[in-house]
Amino acid sequence: MTAQLLNGRQQAKQLQTELSESFAELAAASGVQPTLAALQVGADSGAAGYLRAIRRSCQGVGATLRPVELPEESSQEDVQAALAELNEDEGVHGIMMLEPLPDHIDSTQLIDLLSPGKDVDGVHPLNAGRLAAQREPHFVPATPAGAIMLLEEAEVDFKGKRAVVIGRSDIVGKPMALLLLHRHCTVTIAHSRTEDLPGVARQADILCVAVGRPEMVTGEWIKPGAVVVDFGTTYIGGSLKGDCEQASVEAVAGMLTPVPGGTGPMTNVMLMGNLLSAYRRFVSAA
């Protein structure tokens, strides 16, 4: 068996075209330019790289990126004041906070302060709660939302299937588990302390891996014919590696999101989809 590889690049390109058209129509009708603010504290190279990727995504759909860069030594009060200003700015429709933040900055306080209506990352407790309760409107974190879209486009059957999510982060693992539960899967959330983790993984009809440990999951962990979603993104020697050892997993799985080219390309375009939703609500209310 050789797994069907789910092409995130192709799907992301199609979505970008659709989003670009929608942004252009709303901007022409309203006279307001869609704007995403990205708050960065310090000069972390990873955050800077992500900012460049977001800028390209904004350019691809016709939105404006407004970077707000604060020095490493900024106090909690300084960062909160900058965030509060973005919350009140009617020219800003979406806000995201780039990580990592300096150790002396309490990210929980910032998330609580963030305007839920501009929270395009879906991290505010109100948006997380709406996702858990399956209530609209809410923003779904972009990475799991993109993975679900890939699976739906591949016509994956969710109902009654056993899904295992390895990883319990607020931005990927937990929301992915909820999205699968909402589609009538029986869901297990596993993690580093799960006993017999390979055995738990082998029970999965749909296995999602978001642990940040390159090539941890091998073909021996996979139920034959399973759908495998790899969220991993770790650079080793200049090459991007997923959390799955692709060759051995591909030989057993029925479907696989490859790394690179699977869930990664979908993340930023789904972020732009969240920005469109926030922008549309602003235009409707104006």
Give the topology, please.
Blueprint: E1 4-5, H1 8-30, E2 35-41, H2 45-61, E3 64-70, H3 76-88, E4 94-97, H4 107-113, H5 125-133, H6 142-153, E5 162-166, H7 173-182, E6 186-190, H8 197-201, E7 206-209, E8 227-230, E9 234-236, E10 239-241, H9 246-250, E11 255-256, H10 263-285
Parallel strand pairs: 1-11, 2-3, 2-4, 5-6, 5-7, 7-8, 8-11
Antiparallel strand pairs: 9-10
Task: Describe this protein with a few key phrases.
single chain; globular; alpha/beta; 286 residues; three-stranded parallel sheet; 43% helix; six-stranded parallel sheet
Structure description:
With 286 residues, the protein is of the alpha/beta class. It is 43% helix and 16% strand. The chain is built from 10 helices and 11 strands. Strands 1-11-8-7-5-6 form a 6-stranded parallel sheet. Strands 3-2-4 form a 3-stranded parallel sheet, sandwiched between helices. Helix 2 links the parallel strand 2 and strand 3 (64-70). The mean pLDDT is 96.
